[in-house]
Amino acid sequence: MPVVTLTDRIEWAIVARESLFDERHQAGLRLFNGFLEGEPQLVIDLYATTAVVHNYADPPQAGEALVEQVLAWLPTRLPWLEAILVKTRHSDDETAQNGVLRYGTSLATRIREHGVWYALDLTMNRDASLYLDTRNLRQWILANLADKTVLNTFAYTGSLGVAAVAAGAKRVVQTDRNRRFLNVAKTSHTLNGFPIHKPDFQTDDFWLHMNKFKRKDELFDCVIVDPPMFAATDHGVVDLTQNYTKVLNRVRPLMEHNGTIIAINNALFLSGEEYLALLEKICADGYVEVEQYIDIAEDFTGYPTTRLSKPITNPSPFNHSTKIAVLKTRRRGF
């Protein structure tokens, strides 16, 4: 039996994703998901003309030979690549975690998706400033949030809110604790020619912020809830496996009648059935119901021709550990 190399597996992954490439090389996609496609120490994302190689090996030195193979091979396979950034997840060095340029001279600063530009700051932190796995959600937002009022909590760099603006939403409020993240959202506005209404970019603690909205009787047609895995402040704790229902209950008083909560939970070790059990607690009073799930695209889940492993935890009825549910809400008295 012939020996299958790392570059063989990446080649098969590229072939499976050919329909996602565009002639101008402006797209973003997961080029190789090693967790499911044969090399769990390595993931490669593509942001326009920049490849971001994630070294998940622990210790990191165990993955360096794999990284070197990618650095030598990938520019010959994709000759239009202008840069390769390597992020070393388990390094003790913050710079290595955030990314070191190992090929080329300049990183991509934007991608185009469904006709919308999204700004990038690829070395801002150990993530790459834009979560590509929520691409299908941004497409759903484009199709469903015209003329709506939208609150994007835990906005990070605001891509979901930017999609809502592109959809023609009446108002979009972006909230996050980190002003630097929200500045990337403002850059996305500029790239698309959207006006920047500064009061709609709000920096504050989630728990305090939701209380302020409630005191002001502010209501929204749609609230997007995409929290980090874990975060603790003096005012509250976010834990996707332990108190996610508390987070969702905090936004429920802000919903217009017949409103929509987009509930995202990306806890890797929380199964799909366990997540549904959390959502059922929210729905028990009869004022919330699960309307639909939004699947993650195949470049993240792997393709039938490339998928070699199963997820660590079964995400069913979702198709990925990033589990997205659309909830419909009713207000009492209607």
Automatic annotation (TrEMBL):
<dbReference type="Pfam" id="PF10672">
    <property type="entry name" value="Methyltrans_SAM"/>
</dbReference>
<dbReference type="InterPro" id="IPR029063">
    <property type="entry name" value="SAM-dependent_MTases_sf"/>
</dbReference>
<keyword id="KW-0808">Transferase</keyword>
<keyword id="KW-0949">S-adenosyl-L-methionine</keyword>
<protein>
    <submittedName>
        <fullName>SAM-dependent methyltransferase-like</fullName>
    </submittedName>
</protein>
<dbReference type="GO" id="GO:0008168">
    <property type="term" value="F:methyltransferase activity"/>
</dbReference>
<keyword id="KW-0489">Methyltransferase</keyword>
<dbReference type="InterPro" id="IPR019614">
    <property type="entry name" value="SAM-dep_methyl-trfase"/>
</dbReference>
<dbReference type="GO" id="GO:0032259">
    <property type="term" value="P:methylation"/>
</dbReference>
<feature type="domain" description="S-adenosylmethionine-dependent methyltransferase">
    <location>
        <begin position="109"/>
        <end position="268"/>
    </location>
</feature>
